[in-house]
Write a structure and sequence with these properties.
Shape: elongated
Strand order of the largest sheet: 2-3-7-6-5-8
Order of helices and strands: EEEEEEEEHEEHEHHEEEEHHEEHEEHEEH
CATH superfamily of the largest domain: Threonyl-trna Synthetase, Chain A, domain 2
Helix content: 25-40%
Structural class: alpha+beta
CATH architecture of the largest domain: 2-Layer Sandwich
Largest sheet: 6 strands, antiparallel, barrel
Radius of gyration: 36 Å
Bound molecules: zinc ion
Number of domains: 3
CATH class of the largest domain: Alpha Beta
Number of strands: 21
Length: about 400
């Protein structure tokens, strides 16, 4: 059994202890300040002697310390000095205590219970029993958390055993797990004075003032009937604020406006972009129409009757080929035409005028594209499709021309 020194000495970094057992790179101590991964909270890190402790694992009442590197671990019975990373510990205390406060206020304010907690490397999450948690409710919750933080009330841990534990269990925010009630260490209750009582074995702050700020960054739909809230507390909340401020400052500078005006400015930019797109489309169509007129004049006479145009488009949009072919056959009723467009891939459009020879263009197109590894289809008078290689437009048009001449 390992004595959990961190429970009563959460502010301490250094301790001395005796090695009870060693398994490969894992060391069992008779007492430790290292918090083991449990209850949604990650382990502490630090040093045991000169070796870095990368993981701390709980096995029943035993706590094993996983050492990094190749140096031999301390021998059984040896006295060792341990030192934990206090900055990481402090961060975890802030996130974990902030979670107690957030969960308590959610239940009190909105009757929303917390189902699960995870303390992550950058942000933490709680899963709550609610279909949806809106921004307006979140703002009220954050404000209520802020009030408790400014009151700077004490956060105390008390251990109850036997009948006291059973009685105490009934007064908590959520019923403790059977495991916690049966623990030889007793039932440990974290009390945020006047706000919350919850069974927990994690590390917490001593007063709510240490939390600084509880901020919910997002609320997303989780499992059925649940919502996942992502939140940050204390130092992490300041970092999140700074990060968002930086992005807003950049946007403000870019758009030469105050941050409150960014949204309306973006709306204007979107409108202007839409208008530009419409205008560009109209201009392109005008250009294609002029080209269609010019091409229609130069149509070649087809040996078996009618006329033929094959043409390649580059740049612009693949839909341009369809537009051009459609205009060409309106300008010349006796025309058979093939228009290719080279963009990310090769697009091919075949069309025939009302008075043109009655070739089945759907079949012609399928045959041409099949030999280029592409596919497409359509009707006897109009067909379109695509092939993967845009550089084979010339080949596609030669094949189409031969077929249309036939
Ligand atoms: Zn806790």
């Amino acid at each position: 059994m390992t004595e959990r020194l961190y429970l009563d000495r959460p502010d301490d970094a250094s301790f001395e202890s005796t090695v009870l057992d060693v398994r490969a790179r894992k060391v069992l101590l008779d007492g430790t300040l290292f918090y083991p991964t449990s209850g949604g909270q990650p382990n502490d890190t630090g040093f045991l002697g000169d070796a870095r402790v990368t993981d701390v694992v709980e096995e029943g009442e035993a706590i094993w310390h996983v050492l990094e590197g190749d140096a031999p671990p301390p021998a059984r019975g040896a006295r060792v000095a341990g030192k934990i990373d206090l900055a990481r510990r402090r961060d975890h205390r802030e996130q974990h205590s902030g979670q107690h406060l957030l969960s308590a206020v959610l239940l009190e304010t909105a009757k929303v219970p917390t189902l699960a907690f995870h303390l992550g490397a950058a942000v933490s999450t709680i899963d709550v029993k609610a279909e949806r948690v809106g921004r307006e409710l979140l703002s009220r919750i954050e404000t209520a958390c802020g009030e408790v933080i400014r009151k700077d009330v004490p956060v105390r841990a008390t251990v109850f055993k036997g009948d006291d534990a059973a009685r105490e269990a009934r007064s908590l925010r959520r019923p403790p797990e059977a495991e916690a009630l049966a623990s030889p260490r007793g039932l440990r209750v974290i009390d945020i004075q006047g706000v919350d009582r919850d069974a927990c074995c994690g590390t917490h702050v001593a007063r709510t003032g240490e939390l600084g700020l509880v901020k919910v960054l997002s609320a997303e739909r989780g499992k059925k009937g649940e919502t996942r809230l992502t939140f940050v507390v204390g130092g992490r909340a300041l970092l999140a604020f700074q990060e968002r401020q930086d992005v807003l400052d950049e946007l403000s500078q870019e758009l030469t406006t105050g941050f409150r005006e960014i949204r309306s400015r973006m709306e204007k930019i979107r409108e202007a972009e839409k208008a530009s797109r419409t205008e560009a489309k109209a201009l392109r169509e005008e250009l294609l129409l002029a080209r269609a007129t010019e091409l229609a004049h130069g149509a070649r006479t087809r040996p078996g009757g009618g006329t033929i145009i094959v043409h390649r488009l580059e740049g612009g949009d693949p839909l341009d080929a369809r537009f051009l072919a459609t205009k060409l056959v309106l300008l010349r009723a006796d025309l058979l035409c093939a228009v290719a467009h080279s963009g990310e891939k090769l697009s091919l459009v075949l069309a025939r005028g009302e008075a043109a020879p009655q070739l089945d263009l759907g079949k012609v197109l399928r045959d041409v594209l099949a030999s280029l590894g592409g596919k497409g289809g359509g009707q006897p008078h109009f067909a379109q499709g695509a092939a993967p290689d845009p550089d084979r437009a010339k080949e596609a048009l030669a094949l189409a021309e031969a077929a249309l001449n036939g």
